[in-house]
Amino acid sequence: MKTKQVNILIILSLLCTLTVKTVKAQNLPLILGDSVEVYGPFQQVVVAGEVLKVRTKLLRHWGTTCQYDVEITNTGTKLVSARTGLLMNNTNSLNINTSVNLSLKPNYYVIYKLEIRECLKRREKNPIISCMTCPPVLGFYQASSKK
Fold first, then answer.
1. Half-sphere exposure of 82 (CA within 13 A, CB side)
2. What is the C-alpha separation between 9 and 15, in angstroms, rounded?
């Protein structure tokens, strides 16, 4: 019986280790619009030697979750591939469960619905202020570019 409990603990600790990956790449603090459903200004970031333009809008805030639309445009000349997502609450860790595989051709754009969980600001009616308790930071991991 004790062996079974130890095995379960080992499996659970392995699962926890696999779900969070440390980002050692380009990070971009995102600028939001003035209100919900309004895009913020375009921001430029260089990923794998290519220039990407990024803009973000807050879709909604409910409970302790903030959901965003993140638009990424490849203005470079090569295909850009990376694992990307919002970093977890003031850490340098990318949550594999809520991140996406970005593969973007030149002059194309994509919009991802991304979220930050467990961001809590009690008794705040304005969703922008609530979600800025955990400011969104976009991380690009294992980035590469090719023609």
1. 26
2. 10
